Amino acid sequence: MKTKPRILIVEDERSLCLLYREELEKEGYQVTTVLDAASALQALNTEPFDLIISDIRLPGANGLEFIRSVMERRKNVPVIINTAYESYMQDFSTWAADEYVVKSGSLDELKKKIRVLLEKSHVAA
User: Fold this and answer.
1) Domain range for 107
2) β-strands 99-102, 6-10 pairing
3) What is the DSSP secondary structure assignment for residue 16, as one 8-state letter?
4) Which residue of 5, 41, 48, 63 lies most exposed, with the fewest beta carbons within 10 A?
5) Any idea what the CATH number is for the domain that residue 88 is in?
6) Considering the domain boundaries, does residue 125 fall inside one?
7) What is the mean pLDDT for each group of 10 consecutive residues in the chain (125 residues)?
8) Which of 35, 88, 85 lies closest to 64 in space, CA to CA?
């Protein structure tokens, strides 16, 4: 039996966590959501993930610090920055991520980027 690709979502808005979980599980992914970077690092220490989606503005350590930590530990795991702020695209530190998605009412772009990155890393739903 093929295992579902595992996605870690780091998002401080509970309603978005629920929405992302519901939508991505419908797409065939196994989804873990956490509300801050510290919880995300804990999850990474205990579970393997095929892809990480992180907001930038998080309580405690921000998303950019978290992404730097991930790159140091798990260079082979694709990362998508998912934020409401387009201005961060110009920030050099966001370039460590594999993709950058501006939050919108539609999850189509996010879903497309997830599929592409998982296909590149040979983990498809």
Assistant:
1) 6-117
2) unpaired
3) H
4) 48
5) 3.40.50.2300
6) no
7) 88 94 96 95 93 89 80 82 66 63 88 94 69
8) 88
